[in-house]
Design a protein that fits this description.
InterPro entries: Znf_CHY_sf. It contains three helices and 16 strands. It is mainly beta. The radius of gyration is 20 Å and the shape is globular.
Length: 264
């Protein structure tokens, strides 16, 4: 079973931890960074009275920073604070989505973790049939497995064809980039892609002549972003480190170690 690093927010009630937010962290962190984060003790992250369950982690932090409060707030009684920690949680997941189920392709009847891990069928049309990855029970769209009671997903998107995730962060479907994101993303009209709000404001630079990944269509905008120029059979494709297995031409790809480079 795969273990995925999660960021966890909790409060203390009657000397017990009460979960408030649990969201997957970045999936591609080096193991030494994961070990460092999970070894750190929980830290106070904000005052409980300012926290809102309806807001994402990013929005809660922005709200906290913009709200007048005592500068010595970390010294308040623990029952008045929200705490943050990192923890590895076992999940049955692919590299793109954290969920405990697979969805069935309408054409070939195969089960795939998400649209990016799709089968070889040209039309990505999915049945309303999923399979639990813990007990392999095939069933309808149930958020909890009817056989083993494993949580399967807590959010989904009809616009994406079929998209499931275990993610307490509010998700929205962007009609411009045609992907689902947390609500703390912003669409760049020049790059035609969505970026996290923090990245968009602090580090994003517009690309007039964009280099795009031929799998996920993300723009290669960072000098340090890894990408490869690979012949996929009939085309030369730019592939970023998105873990996709097929390019937009439907050809399978094998990324060879050593061909990655930075944007020149």
């Amino acid at each position: 079973m795969k273990q995925v690093l999660h960021k966890i927010w909790y409060q203390i009630c009657d000397n017990q931890e009460q979960l408030l937010k649990q969201v997957p962290a970045t999936l591609n962190l080096p193991q030494n960074e994961i070990n460092h984060l999970t070894s750190q003790p929980a830290r106070p992250i904000m005052i409980k009275t300012i926290f809102s369950k309806q807001l994402s982690i990013h929005e809660n932090l922005m709200r906290f920073r913009s709200t007048p409060h005592n500068l010595n707030w970390p010294t308040l009684n623990p029952s008045q604070l929200i705490f943050e920690k990192y923890q590895l949680i076992p999940v049955h997941a692919c590299s793109h989505r954290v969920s405990n189920c697979q969805v069935q392709c309408q054409e070939c009847q195969q089960f795939v973790p998400c649209p990016e891990c799709a089968c070889s069928c040209s039309a990505l049309v999915f049945n309303n049939v999923i399979k639990c990855l813990k007990c392999e029970q095939v069933q309808g769209l149930n958020q909890t497995c009817i056989k083993c009671s494993q949580p399967l997903f807590d959010s989904s998107c009809d616009f994406c064809g079929c998209w499931f995730a275990l993610n307490n962060e509010p998700q929205v479907h962007c009609q411009k980039c045609m992907k689902c994101h947390s609500i703390s993303h912003r669409f760049c009209t020049k790059c035609k892609s969505c970026f996290q709000e923090k990245e968009f404001v602090e580090t994003h630079r517009h690309v007039e002549t964009a280099v795009r990944c031929d799998c996920c269509k993300s723009v290669v905008v960072s000098d340090s972003m890894k990408f490869a120029k690979i012949e996929c059979g009939c085309h030369i494709c730019f592939i970023c480190a998105c873990m996709h297995r097929k390019c937009t031409h439907g050809n399978g790809l094998e990324i060879v170690e050593g061909v990655w480079g930075g944007l020149k």
